[in-house]
Design brief:
The protein has 80 residues and is α+β, with helices and mostly antiparallel strands. The chain contains one helix and six strands, in the order αββββββ. A four-stranded mixed beta sheet has the order 1-6-5-4, covered by helices on one side. Strands 2-3 form a two-stranded antiparallel sheet. Strand 2 and strand 3 form a beta hairpin. The chain starts with a helix and ends with a strand.
């Protein structure tokens, strides 16, 4: 993963886990159903898989992935 993408992911994940907000001024943020570790991003009739990585913030776990194609971060809370 490129360092720019990693920086974006960390910023969005930390903000989401600490505030519950999916707002970000630079990228779109989409919350997907809990327990998902991948997401199929649709573009017209084609789909593209976005693999999510596990992040831990303040003893909470979330799966997150970044799509450079759409400048979107996908978030999925881990099932407890």
């Amino acid at each position: 993963m490129y360092s720019v993408e990693r920086t974006i992911l960390l910023r969005v994940v930390e903000n989401f886990m600490r505030t519950g907000s999916t707002a970000d001024g630079e990228v779109a943020v989409v919350s997907i159903p809990s327990g998902k570790s991948s997401y199929v991003e649709q573009n017209g009739e084609y789909g593209r898989s976005v693999m999510l990585d596990e992040f831990r913030v303040d003893d909470k776990v979330v799966w997150a992935g970044y799509s450079a194609r759409s400048s979107t971060v996908y978030l999925s809370l881990r099932n407890s």
